[in-house]
Predict the 3D structure of the following.
Amino acid sequence: MEAIILAGGLGLRLREKVYEAPKVLAETAGKPFIFHVLEYLYRNGVTHAVLAVSYMHEKIISSVGNSFHGMTIDYSVEKEPLGTGGAIKEAMKKCNEDFVFVLNGDTVFDVDLREMYKTAKKDFVTIALKYMDNADRRGIVETENGVVTYFKEKEPGKSGTINGGIYLIDRQVPLSKKKKFSFEYDFLEMNCNRLIPFVSDGYFIDIGIPEDYERAQNEVPVMLTGRKGKAAFLDRDGTININTGHLFRQEDFIFTQNAPERIAELQKKGYYITVISNQAGVAKGMYTENDIAKLNSFINKKLLPYGVIIDAFFHCPHHPDGVVKEYTVDCDCRKPKAGMIFKAVEYYKSLGIEIDLSQSILIGDKDTDIQAGETAGVGRCIKAENNIFPEI
Ligand SMILES: [Zn+2]
């Protein structure tokens, strides 16, 4: 999935002081706010982000760089003020997929992007809405029977759904003929009939509001950490795809029966989808770890139409009888050993997710898969047979 982050905002104005830095770099719980936004995107399966920048863009580019946890980051630099609409239009030129998320770099709204992605519809824009008891500071977005009817001006003391500032846009939708325009006023409010509302009760914070910025210091890290989770550890060859033997070419990759649909179901049930695969072909000099990485992103691309994305891939490149010296070892990760499962648990921990292995599952087509799961203490280990992905 791809996302554009609107990061052109000026410095943060807080009661007495104005920060001499772009808003997205405002220090929040120990790091620039933009890193919380990137963390959020990363956890939601976004693999490519384009930052639309203008004010002090050199500073943003040098502090964020070109990748974050393996997520690629590009920049769209505004040379003159284009408004939010113009900035989105420009940034879209750096996108590749049919549908792209757009969000504000000074806001965290914990919407489940994978769920939101499922609303993607040709010629439409999905808009994430948040219900608020007190929508004082923002206008209310009225909906009726799943359709946006109109945008109301700010009215004190009103409750209702506000625009949460996350959109999923079909790139073919003509936003405006103009170069400079406001996405909110010139597009959204004028095109209610093109909007699909997506209401979420996810955590919401906007650091542009001084009280929210102070609140963010304590709340944002909590929002992004301390989650409990369960994982689905999936073997690759023979489980997700038909095993053709030392597979690494995209053209040889064929899903086993029902794999995409059933992996999507697992994700819907709350499992973090984790591939753990023995890839002794690396030790045997048949392909490289880079080839595996390329195939992994290809697999995720193939899964996208099913509204699912693999959260993490792990592989063991080793084999005791290899030919490539550095991989020719008797390691702890080659199944039936459980090293990859423990590595995955550590990885999720680094994202603030505590995996409960007893609530987790493992699916594999070999006895060695099942053994690895049992060694690690995975609650349920299930055998895949006859190139059919089992139903859980
Ligand atoms: Zn290994």
Notes: The chain has two domains: 2-224, 227-383. The pocket of zinc ion is lined by residues 316, 318, 331, 333-334 (CB under 6 Å). The mean pLDDT is 90. The two ends are 26 Å apart (CA to CA).
